[in-house]
Fold CopG antitoxin of type II toxin-antitoxin system.
Amino acid sequence: MSKVPKEIREALKKEAYEWEDAARRETAEQIEETLEGAELFKATRLPRRPVSVRLDPRDISMLKRVARHKGIPYSQLVAIWVHERIEKERQVSTD
């Protein structure tokens, strides 16, 4: 379920369709000209900090296997899972 209210979602959807229609009417030269003058968007966030956790060797082995199956480093998988759990706990605590 989305946290964004329905009326805002609908307004955003309508705006997206309007932008899509406007983009369809532009020529390749107009798009190229617009992109040349655009600034790059840089999202800033705090740097990540390393954390040490002692895990059972079998859990580490299984974690690496799951990560390999997903095609990502196991440390990234751990970070994703921790983040997902924190978000879940946050939702439970706000309900």
Notes: The chain has a mean pLDDT of 90.
